[in-house]
Amino acid sequence: MAYETIIVDQVDGIAVITLNRPDALNALNLQLLRELLQALEEADRGEKVRAIIITGSEKAFAAGADITEMADKSFVDVLEEDLFGSEAARFARIRKPIIAAVSGYALGGGCELAMMCDFIIASETAKFGQPEINLGVIAGMGGTQRLTRFVGKAKSMDMHLTGRFMDAAEAERSGLVSRVVPAKKLMEEARGAAMKIAEKSTIVAAAAKESVNRAYETTMAEGLLFERRLFHSMFATEDQKEGMAAFREKREAQFRDR
Ligand code: HXC
């Protein structure tokens, strides 16, 4: 499939999707979002892909939704097309682990896209922000909900109301990103994390992802029950037998996704 706004590269079971609209700092227009979703769905279906990385350029992961494309839309336009609604829903259905490798600006929809991934690895140059208030709108792809859950109400309110940016150190301190590395090491670190995931059983990785995500959707008691039932179901897999046998035999497990 030929894409115009993203580059897809697949090596050793890792699909790397690079946002590629350099002239607009990877602003998310509908074409880019649709190409991204198509690439993600293809990677999710692809038997060889075991983990996915989404990244941008050194200067920008993505500087937000494309303001030029949105500026003249009316309320009825965005309501009728349910702007970004179907894209967000399709993203949420991807079952393979997705890492966001963020360098430079991750603003507005760019910050929201990074937060939709399963975890974020940031370079020291990363800047996160929800500056939509400066444009006379609010976040529309999860920013008010996800950022608040990640960093808490105080910092989320601060960012949504003042539009200020958060640097990588603050983002790590606040729980928005899992690791911060020097800019030159970003892709090496992200690939390393993806390779670690790729060694695991895809069935078990998908279950872990589903269960962690459940924490954001339900009560503690229901979440614990959901986790326990999924945990129980792992005992129906060959990979559980292999993983525990390998431990007892003091060797590396060879998972077969069965
Ligand atoms: C369209 C954008 C853009 C955007 C940057 N560009 N961000 N185009 N939509 N979100 C374009 C600029 O117009 C410019 O094009 C080129 O990219 C380079 O940007 P500059 O501003 O010249 O770069 P710089 O001075 O380095 O400033 C970088 C920046 C600034 C601080 C990131 O570009 C900026 O503030 N961008 C907007 C950030 C933002 O408000 N994001 C939220 C968008 S709303 P030209 O042609 O002039 O060279 C949103 C709503 C989400 O995301 C709702 C749900 C998804």
From TrEMBL:
It catalyses: a (3S)-3-hydroxyacyl-CoA = a (2E)-enoyl-CoA + H2O; a 4-saturated-(3S)-3-hydroxyacyl-CoA = a (3E)-enoyl-CoA + H2O. The keyword Lipid metabolism applies. Keywords: Fatty acid metabolism, Lipid metabolism, Lyase. GO terms for molecular function: 3-hydroxyacyl-CoA dehydratase activity. The keyword Lipid metabolism applies. CDD domains: crotonase-like. GO terms for biological process: fatty acid beta-oxidation. InterPro entries: ClpP/crotonase-like_dom_sf, Enoyl-CoA_hyd/isom_CS, Enoyl-CoA_hydra/iso, Enoyl-CoA_hydra_C. Its EC number is 4.2.1.17. Could possibly oxidize fatty acids using specific components. Belongs to the enoyl-CoA hydratase/isomerase family. This is enoyl-CoA hydratase. It comes from Wenxinia marina DSM 24838.
